């Protein structure tokens, strides 16, 4: 398999699902991709992101178009997986920021306290408000990203989020 170019290996994989061709492609790009990830996150996390990258690439290789280099496509998958990791990683930090915008001096807040307060506040929200609030505050999606994902008009998303914010503040101030 060493004698084939990346494009040829991709063609082999797409036509016959040859695992050895796939292994060769990843062997060629693994070191660069791993160094790229390790420059952004710790080694164990880099390995997790790489594993997700390889899974996604393996399952989506049939959609790869030979208009770009395989390495470009692979690195874009890795970058998207890294962004997803960053979004998920800071859920508790985002919840803390959202629920406790004005922290009181001398008061520490544990993740359990944040989760309890979030659950209490979220119980006052409608299902739509809850889903939009979580997408915005927990996962960090912008209003336009939420509108696109939920197929709701942007104004509706903003209105529901504003109402959710007000309800959360009322419940948490009680």
- Counting structural domains, the number is 2
Annotated CATH topology of the largest domain = Rna Polymerase Sigma Factor, Chain: A
Beta strand count:
0
Rg over C-alpha atoms, rounded to the nearest angstrom: 22 Å
Q: Please, what is the CATH homologous superfamily of the largest domain? A: RNA polymerase sigma factor, region 2, helix turn helix motif
**Beta-strand proportion:** under 5%
CATH architecture of the largest domain: Orthogonal Bundle
Query: Largest beta sheet, briefly?
Result: none
**Classification by helices and strands:** mainly alpha
Reconstruct the topology from this structure.
Elements: H1 6-16, H2 19-38, H3 43-60, H4 70-89, H5 91-99, H6 111-122, H7 127-138, H8 143-150, H9 154-173
Account of the protein in words:
The protein is mainly alpha-helical. The chain starts with 5 loop residues before the first helix and ends with a helix. The protein contains 9 helices and no strands. It is 75% helix and 0% strand. It has 2 domains: 84 residues, RNA polymerase sigma factor, region 2, helix turn helix motif (Rna Polymerase Sigma Factor, Chain: A), CATH 1.10.1740.10; 83 residues, Orthogonal Bundle (Arc Repressor Mutant, subunit A), CATH 1.10.10. It holds the Pfam family Sigma70_r2. One of its GO terms (biological process) is DNA-templated transcription initiation. This is RNA polymerase sigma factor. One of its GO terms (molecular function) is sigma factor activity.
